[in-house]
Amino acid sequence: MSREQKQQVLDELKKVFNLIIPNGMNVENVTLENNITTDLGINSVGVIYLAIAIEELYGLDMSEVTFNRFKTIEDVVDYIIERRK
Predict the structure, then answer these.
(1) Most buried of 9, 26, 42, 81 (most Cβ within 10 A)?
(2) Three-state secondary structure string covering the chain
(3) How far apart are the first and last CA of the chain?
(4) How far apart are alpha carbons 54 and 2 in whole angstroms?
(5) Do residues 75 and 39 lie in contact, with contact meaning Cβ atoms separated by under 8 Å?
(6) What is the pLDDT of residues 7-29, one digit of tens each?
(7) How many whole angstroms separate alpha carbon 63 and alpha carbon 65?
């Protein structure tokens, strides 16, 4: 996976993060290395919303079991890129 592919998916996901990241955090500062819950402060409801948004945006299965294995934004981005092939 190229860095450009990862950045493109991250930029697409930032629109979703804008809706679920708690106030006070600038989504432009979100990086691939950020931890979904600890760094971004996304709670369980936000995680569910993110999973649903990914299903709708990319047509991918984001069951609870699948999503719970992701720790960082890069884990999510890699999953999206791998499944879109």
Answers:
(1) 9
(2) CCHHHHHHHHHHHHHHHHHHCCCCCCHHHCCCCCECCCCCCCCHHHHHHHHHHHHHHHCCCCCHHHHHCCCEHHHHHHHHHHHHC
(3) 11
(4) 20
(5) no
(6) 999 999 999 998 888 777 889 99
(7) 5
| Residues with Cβ within 8 Å of residue 82, at least 6 apart in sequence | 1
> Which residues on adjacent β-strands are paired with residue 35?
72
Structure tokens at 7: 């950045």
- The first and second tokens of residue 18, run together, are 């804008």
Instruction: Tell me how far apart the 2 most distant CA atoms of the chain are, in Å.
Output: 36
**Domains annotated on the chain, with CATH:** 3-84 (1.10.1200.10)
> Cβ atoms within 10 A of the Cβ of 70, count?
19
